[in-house]
Design goal:
145 residues; mainly alpha; 434 Repressor (Amino-terminal Domain); 7 helices; 60% helix; elongated; disordered N terminus; DNA-binding transcription factor activity; Transcriptional regulator with XRE-family HTH domain; Lambda_DNA-bd_dom_sf
Length: 145
């Protein structure tokens, strides 16, 4: 008897998430120029376990992700999103562009997003929209000739 198509999809999705988070951690570790052994020590996670996470064999818990994020000096939220624990924050095209920029570190991305969101909150609290915000113009008065 054959199983209906898609019967194993939930397990495949978990395996994909584990593989994705492992690859993401490996990329972050590589860009930070930290060895697997160094990250293992910084995060307080055994070297073999960290290796299994990076290879997609194991899916780490939120607590382990937090320890790894601390060791990599990136936001735990970034790892939670990659692991499927948190949904990708909304923020429109600006937030998407910041998150997609490969030239920025995770910390730099988070700082930019925080500043951007603070401006948006400030404008919302003041009831301003881009159209109603005061415009800054240069003094364009011409001298009489």
């Amino acid at each position: 008897m054959t199983e209906p198509s898609g019967a194993h999809r939930p397990m495949e999705k978990v395996a994909d998430i584990a593989s994705d988070i492992g690859e993401y951690i490996r990329q972050q570790r590589s860009s930070a120029k930290i060895s697997l052994r160094q990250l293992s020590k910084l995060a307080g996670v055994s070297n073999p376990y960290l290796s299994q996470i990076e290879r997609g064999v194991r899916k780490p818990s939120a607590e382990i992700l937090q320890q790894i994020a601390k060791g990599l000096r990136i936001s735990a939220e970034a790892l939670y999103v990659q692991a499927g624990i948190l949904d990708l924050p909304t923020g429109g095209p600006v937030g998407d562009a910041i998150r997609a920029d490969t030239e920025l570190t995770e910390r730099q991305k988070q700082v930019l997003l925080d500043v951007y969101e603070s401006f948006r909150r400030e404008n919302a609290a003041a009831g301003e929209t881009p159209a109603s915000a005061p415009k800054t113009t240069r003094d364009t008065t011409e001298e009489s000739v």
